[in-house]
Design brief:
Elements (H helix, E strand, L loop, with lengths): L21 E2 L3 E4 L5 E5 L1 H9 L3 E5 L4 E4 L12 E6 L4 E13 L5 E14 L2 H20 L21 H20 L2 E7 L5 H6 L18 H8 L14 E5 L14 E5 H7 L4 H4 L4 H8 L7 H17 L6 E4 L1 H11 L5 H7 L10 E6 L1 E7 L8 E3 L5 E4 L5 E2 L2 E2 L3 E6 L6 E8 L5 E6 L2 E6 L3 E5 L4 E7 L11
Parallel strand pairs: 1-13, 2-5, 6-9, 8-13, 8-14, 9-12
Antiparallel strand pairs: 2-3, 4-5, 6-7, 7-8, 10-11, 14-24, 15-16, 17-18, 19-20, 19-23, 20-21, 21-22
Helix pairs in contact: 2-3, 3-9, 10-11
Length: 479
């Protein structure tokens, strides 16, 4: 059985003791007329660029465009895009599948990972900014004014509406999938679609029958429930027979919720002493009591609720790409990953999405060596002023986002002739109106004049980095 081109670790395995083969990440290739072709090995891309047969079309993700071949003159087998959605991050993997003959002459399917991308969402940042904006508006409307009743909350929302922090997860995933459809000949999209049972997660055990109708506070109220749960005593000092307040283990000012698992009873002195301090800091000198209290804290359900709210919307939005959509369960992904002996990451889970018949010898024989990390950074703010830590305006922001031809987030190459930072540096910039822009480098931020900059790639709302794929065992062959 022949290996793939340039010896990139693509030798298929036919035993169940999978060792985790790893190979070089592929490079996107476009035809002369801008149509996507099959991704190629980096060595092949260097050869094409060196001979002048191709030019660089995009730096990140690295893409080349051929100068002497069109789509009609090329052989394109097609690849599959596999998506593992998540609340904090989403994994995307481009794979191809080939039919091979094993040592017994039987035909098996081998799956190879070509390109892996980890998309990091910024839903938490959007939520925090909206809360901050609401606080600023509340202060402006209420400061030095008479009391005004709040506006009624009976306004209708359009069908399919999602909060901005959740809509962001759908939009960024679809945007990145659409971009990969422009750079690679994707024929199918496989997505993991899961729904979490938040009621059972709150209970901490499987539920059945009428148990789903009986929640934590069935037949009672929160204060009575807490009195019974904590034996009418302070959770911090065991004081009984004194007035008890309801205290949040994780303060609401630090993102804590009003879930009953986040509530305890506290006497007035303990409640005042704790204030807005997290419970792990407040009881750092009493680890035994801290461990006892944390036993009743349930798993946060924010991420599970976000996935439940967006998994159908994401599938519907991906249909606009014009490719067949195949949805798979999370159990299938876990089964594939366990059978292959792989560690759990977003990109490895994406590679394992979809059907794979292990009993007939099908296997995942290759993982990309490097993972491209695309972190959503946004495109700036609409705020007209920069506030201080109290929320009061500190300075006015320039209304123009472009200064001397550059925008914050652009990828540039700086050539500094003299001084401490003499040399050539490449990175993302933050622009300033005076023309002395700030450049992010591996050694820190430096100030560079716009005269010493050259644009490499326009900012697209993402910051890019790379990391090595985390596998349990080393590759038997690298390349």
């Amino acid at each position: 059985m022949e290996t793939a081109e340039n010896g990139s670790g693509d030798v298929p395995t036919h035993d169940h003791a999978y060792a985790g083969g790893i190979g070089a990440s592929r490079v996107f290739v476009l035809s002369k007329d801008g149509q996507p072709l099959m991704p190629c090995h980096p060595a092949r891309a260097r050869e094409l660029l060196g001979k002048g047969r191709a030019v660089v079309a995009r730096q990140v993700p690295f893409t080349i465009r051929l100068k002497d071949r069109t789509l009609a003159e090329s052989e394109v087998d097609g690849v599959r895009l596999r998506i593992d959605p998540g609340s904090k991050g989403t994994g995307l993997a481009l794979t191809d599948e080939k039919k091979e003959a094993d040592e017994h002459g039987a035909t098996v399917t081998v799956r190879r990972g070509l390109i892996a991308v980890e998309l990091q969402h910024r839903g938490d940042q959007i939520r925090m900014c909206m809360q901050q904006r609401a606080g600023y508006r509340h202060r402006r409307r209420s400061a030095n004014c008479r009391y005004r009743a709040p506006r009624s909350d009976n306004r209708a929302r359009p069908e399919g509406w999602l909060p901005p922090s959740l809509r962001h997860r759908v939009d960024t995933t679809v945007s990145l999938a659409r971009r990969m459809c422009r750079y690679a000949p994707i024929t199918e999209i496989h997505i993991e679609r899961v729904a979490f049972d938040t009621h059972a997660m709150t209970a901490g055990s499987p539920l059945a029958g009428t148990e789903y109708q009986q929640g934590t506070l069935a037949g009672t109220e929160a204060r009575a429930y807490l009195h019974a749960k904590w034996n009418r005593a302070c959770a911090y000092c065991d004081a009984a027979g004194v007035p008890l307040n309801i205290d949040h283990l994780r303060p609401r000012s630090r993102g804590g919720s009003d879930r009953v698992s986040n509530l305890v009873l506290a006497c007035v002195p303990c409640n005042q002493a704790k204030g807005s301090t997290p419970v792990d800091v407040f009881l750092a000198h009493r680890p035994d009591r801290l461990a006892e209290i944390l036993q009743q804290v349930k798993t946060p359900l924010h991420d599970a609720a976000a996935m439940n709210a967006t998994h159908w919307r994401l599938t519907e939005a991906l249909e606009s790409l014009g490719r067949p959509i195949l949805a798979w369960s999370g159990g299938r992904t876990k089964w594939n990953r366990t059978a292959m002996g792989l560690d759990k990451t977003h990109t490895v889970d994406a590679l394992c999405v979809g059907g794979l018949d292990h009993e007939d010898g099908d296997a995942i024989v290759r993982l990309p060596e490097q993972v491209l990390i695309a972190k959503a950074t946004g495109r700036g703010s609409y705020a007209r002023t920069t506030p201080d830590r109290f929320g009061f305006p500190r300075l006015r922001r320039a209304r123009a986002k472009q200064h001397f031809g550059y925008v914050t987030g652009d990828l540039v190459r700086a050539t500094i002739p003299t001084g401490k930072w003499a040399g050539t540096w490449t990175g993302r910039i933050s622009v300033r109106a005076r023309g002395q822009h700030s450049l992010a480098t591996p050694r820190g931020r430096i100030n560079v004049s716009h005269w010493n900059l050259r644009l490499v790639q326009r900012g697209d709302g993402y910051g890019y980095a790379t990391r090595r794929e985390l596998v349990q065992s080393p590759s038997r062959k690298t390349g």
